[in-house]
Amino acid sequence: AVEYVEKVIRLNVPAGYYQMGVFLEQGIGVKQDKKAALAYFRKAADMGSPQGQLSVGKNLLRIDDPSVRPRVLPIAESALKCALGQGLAEAGYELGIYYEITIKDIQKAMRAFQDGGKLGHNQSLFKLGKIFRQGEYGIEPDPQRSTCYAGLEAASDADKTKTFPDLDRICPLPPKKMPG
């Protein structure tokens, strides 16, 4: 597999760089090297790979060195936004968690979860349902919205390919009113 991926890299295909990053990160067929893995993910991301962008974003968000963190957070956010813009649902969830936990901006977090939910991301729909069920972060409890997201989460559970492109109409975020 490593030889095949090396051939794909020689052809300058983003998926090859991403896959080599996975091999290096996990030590599959090569010596484990997380720093080198990030370099391969970054190359894939720079070439437009949404999986590479997601990996870069997630890896950079894990850096907790206070001297480096302020410089890498904007790159992580940008990478996740790019991956989400290319339809990678998990990027919406990761971006939402970043806004919720690190930035502490629940409005941005809910928008990111909503965008992930449109793409059928189960955890994003769960997060939104929970926020409205429990009234977290100063958001008023809203049983109707919570039930709406829970129903879509169940539909996503039942069919992993299901997406909700009209989510903003079905379960709009406040201040929009819920449909009748």
Defining key terms:
180 residues, mainly alpha, 0% strand
Protein architecture, described:
- Helix 1 (2-10) packs antiparallel against helix 2 (14-26), helix 4 packs antiparallel against helix 5 (69-85) and helix 7 crosses helix 8 (122-134).
- The protein has 180 residues and is mostly helical.
- The protein contains 10 helices and no strands.
- The protein has helices spanning 2-10, 14-26, 34-46, 50-61, 69-85, 89-103, 106-118, 122-134, 143-158, 167-170.
Topology:
Blueprint: H1 2-10, H2 14-26, H3 34-46, H4 50-61, H5 69-85, H6 89-103, H7 106-118, H8 122-134, H9 143-158, H10 167-170
Helix pairs in contact: 1-2, 2-3, 3-4, 4-5, 4-6, 5-6, 6-7, 7-8, 8-9
Q: Total number of β-strand segments? A: 0
Termini Cα gap: 54 Å
Query: What is the N-to-C succession of helices and strands?
Result: HHHHHHHHHH
Task: Outline the low-pLDDT stretches.
Answer: none
**Radius of gyration, CA atoms, in whole angstroms:** 18 Å
Content of β-strand: under 5%
Question: What oligomeric state is this?
Answer: single chain
Would you summarize the structure shown here?
The chain is mainly alpha-helical. It has helices at residues 2-10, 14-26, 34-46, 50-61, 69-85, 89-103, 106-118, 122-134, 143-158, 167-170.
